[in-house]
Write a structure and sequence with these properties.
With 454 residues, this protein is of the alpha/beta class. It is built from 18 helices and 13 strands.
Length: 454
């Protein structure tokens, strides 16, 4: 069974005395249902799972329910023998986006307090936008992601002691030995191929066969395409969701690495606003990561974003390398000189930062250039720029240098991640191996504890 960090969060929530209902969101096939099922069965005597997609394909018992009394009656019809009270009964409402009225009904189920509830859903961000009565104050929304690199390491035999030692080395800015660094880069490159989709990771661990892994990833992409087609049909819209999603890998090879509106349909003069629904779906469904442009970076960054300029990254780097290289593992494992892995590394970093709670931005200035990422530096109340390098010229970064020289932005330092082993500070730039991004959380955990006491 794969180790997932979300498990600790779920168990803490289920052990707590809160009456708010947790709704776990995220893209399809990332392990939401499995994680809830494992934690729920472990902590509750009675675990009841209702999958609304399966219900709709079967008897449709829960389909037209809008009142809690009707819900209780139907629940007792399918699981009456397992129903006791909220102390030992957990009801799991899976694929809640399929019957969106249940998002409103959660408020009344919480007020009644008869049982404990937890819900999960894909396309949840879109469903919440379309829900007229969101039960604010009654639910806790938590987003889940594919396995991050730390979880991938543990799946490959690392224990918590090894991970803690790596974290201490990162915090103290210590370089690993050549042997340890090579081991980390070896696994990082495998992560670029496999990604973090649980079924793909399990298939890799059991077979080490790239063809089998790619079959899983191709199936996931097909599932995403089917979801998009279904969304278009249900909303009576003819959107270009598949076209834009399929453009992501090729656009990442461009200099600006962002999707240009006029290239979507080949129409000169097309503007981003015309495709707002498509971009909103791809990001809200969790199948793409949005990185918004900022030309004047001031803390907090969300106040300075340019909504009409953004990059899209696929939500899983394994899906990306599957499209780029198919079953050929050499470009990634052997660093083939003719292949530029810049976009692949950037995708992995975006995935890692997002999984660790960061909102994603990038610096875009016509005169000064472009920096791959900007994240909020809560300790220094400024922006923190991050450059991703996949080659040997990792010390060349004119746009980052220009950004740090600008006194108007009050940026304290920058980070460059690359294949290089050494972790060192040169002026106001920190150089470190790319795998260190796994420890860059957004909770300001490196701030002294005393600063939180007031």
């Amino acid at each position: 069974m794969l180790y997932r960090k979300i498990t600790s969060y779920l168990e803490d929530y289920l052990r707590s005395d809160t009456d708010k209902i947790l709704v776990l969101g995220g893209a399809r096939q990332i392990g939401k249902s499995f994680s809830i099922r494992e934690a729920g069965k472990r902590l509750f005597k009675n675990f009841i799972e209702i999958n609304f997609v399966e219900d709709d394909a079967g008897e449709q018992l829960f389909r037209n329910i809008h009142r809690k009394e009707d819900f209780y009656l139907t629940l007792s019809m399918v699981a009456g023998g397992k129903l006791s009270d909220r102390h030992d009964t957990l009801v799991f409402l899976d694929e809640i986006q399929h019957y969106p009225q249940y998002l409103t009904l959660l408020k009344f189920l919480r007020e009644d307090g008869r049982y404990r509830y937890v819900a999960s859903g894909s396309l949840l961000g879109i469903t919440l936008q379309d829900t007229t009565s969101i039960p604010v104050g009654s639910i806790i929304i938590k987003e889940m992601f594919p396995l991050d690199f730390e979880e991938f390491l543990i799946a490959n035999g690392f224990d918590t002691t090894a991970v803690d030692a790596l974290r201490v080395a990162y915090e103290n800015r210590q370089s690993l030995t050549e042997e340890h660094h090579n081991r980390m880069m070896n696994l990082f490159r495998r992560y670029l191929l496999v990604g973090g989709m649980p079924e793909a990771v399990n298939t890799y661990l059991s077979t080490h066969n790239i063809v089998r892994v790619r079959e899983i990833q191709n199936g996931i992409r097909s599932l995403y395409a089917d979801d998009a087609a279904k969304y278009e049909k249900e909303h009576g819209k003819k959107l270009l969701l598949r076209r834009i999603y399929e453009m992501i890998p090729s656009q990442m090879e461009n200099k600006k690495k962002r999707i240009i509106a006029q290239e979507i349909q080949g129409r000169k003069g097309d503007r981003f606003v015309r495709y707002g629904a498509e971009f909103e779906y791809l990001v809200s469904s969790g199948i793409a990561l949005a990185v918004h442009a900022i030309s004047n970076p001031h803390f907090p960054l969300s106040e300075s974003l340019q909504k009409n300029l953004l990059k899209l990254y696929m939500n899983d780097v394994g899906l990306l390398t599957g499209l780029l290289y198919h079953n050929n593992i050499r470009p990634v494992l052997e660093d083939v000189h003719s292949i530029n892995l810049g976009s692949v590394y950037e995708s992995a970093v975006a995935q890692e930062l997002r999984a660790h709670g960061h909102k994603l931005f990038y610096y875009d200035n016509r005169k000064l250039g472009e920096v791959d990422y900007l994240i909020d530096d809560y300790k220094n109340l400024s922006a923190l720029p991050l450059e991703v390098k996949s080659g040997k010229d990792y010390t060349i970064h004119s746009a980052l240098d220009n950004l740090l020289k600008n006194p108007d932005y009050n940026i304290q330092s920058g980070i460059v991640v690359s294949n290089n082993r050494t972790c060192r500070q040169e002026g106001n730039i920190l150089y470190m191996p790319v795998y260190c991004v796994m420890f860059m959380t957004a909770d300001a955990s490196n701030t002294d504890e005393e600063e939180y006491i007031f």
